[in-house]
Specification:
The protein is α/β, with parallel strands linked by helices. It folds into two domains: about 220 residues, Rossmann fold, CATH 3.40.50; about 70 residues, no CATH class. It contains ten helices and 14 strands. A hairpin with a 5-residue loop joins strand 1 and strand 2. Helix 4 crosses helix 5. The longest helix has 16 residues. The structure holds adenosine-5'-triphosphate and magnesium ion (MG). Adenosine-5'-triphosphate (ATP) binds next to helix 1. Magnesium ion binds next to helix 1.
Length: about 300
Amino acid sequence: MNSLSIKNFSKQYPNGVKALSNISLEISDGMFGLLGPNGAGKSTLMRTIATLQRPDSGSLFFNGINIHSEHTKLRRLLGYLPQEFGVYPNESAERLLNYFGILKGISSVKERRSKIQEVLELTNLFDVRKNAVSDYSGGMRQRFGIAQLLLNDPKLIIVDEPTAGLDPAERRRFLNLLREISQDTVVIFSTHLVEDVTELCQNLAMINKGMVLMEGTPTNIVQNIETNIWTCDIATDKLSEYKTKYSVLSSSFTPQQKLRVRVFSRSQPSPEFTLSTASLEDAYFLILQITEAEHA
Ligand SMILES: Nc1ncnc2c1ncn2[C@@H]1O[C@H](COP(=O)(O)OP(=O)(O)OP(=O)(O)O)[C@@H](O)[C@H]1O
Ligand SMILES: [Mg+2]
């Protein structure tokens, strides 16, 4: 069992932005989702775990390796796919993987060949291995990103917003691939989409303004607000009135052109409301609302 242990980690950028404040997380094998809006601090956290940035304070350990001071040891076990991967050269997937394999120190030609075949098959790119990666679709490129990071059999995989820009079918395919490789590996991925973490993550952390605001299994998180989500249908021009009176989490149109509002409340807010089944999205919107209000 692999384990990543982060304790009281803080990071401030030279321009004064406090990107992370006192983060503590214990993460073991499986899929771990880092859910947060733009600027929450997801990439900062991931870059630090990937040894590309130093923490100001706190400790980060993976399987007993000090991430802060043992870069080389950690990198041998690490697979990292950054948020912006840059431009791919006009080379076939197979050739590029061969270069990456050499860079990662797989010196035997035979060993490299078999490893490349294995990762191409796993990521479903074997049939298009002769095509230029620069001509791949967004989803295929993301899968290629996974193929290259799998070459050195990483035990800690970090992928930063991998589903951004993917269509629903590719997104599902990509997340299933991550799920498959997370059996005996720590896989951390970030997203701002609740649906990415709802089904596939064993554990997740919701982060905003550089803080971990809630952490646990999707089921546990929803249980916290199980009997606190209420809904009712209102005329569209009533929305601002409801927003001042109640803690409105979200609203959506009904076929009758009314607005169905979802409200957080410990007890029935007023007789027109009915109790609704709480969702992970409700929990996320609630967390965001609380932190935004505190920082307003
Ligand atoms: N190199 C940097 N120098 C200064 N400030 C930075 C730097 N990188 C990030 N920040 C700031 O730190 C905060 C956290 O940024 P970060 O990129 O970690 O967030 P994020 O959750 O990855 O956001 P996104 O969803 O937009 O990728 C933001 O306020 C951002 O502007
Ligand atoms: Mg980011």
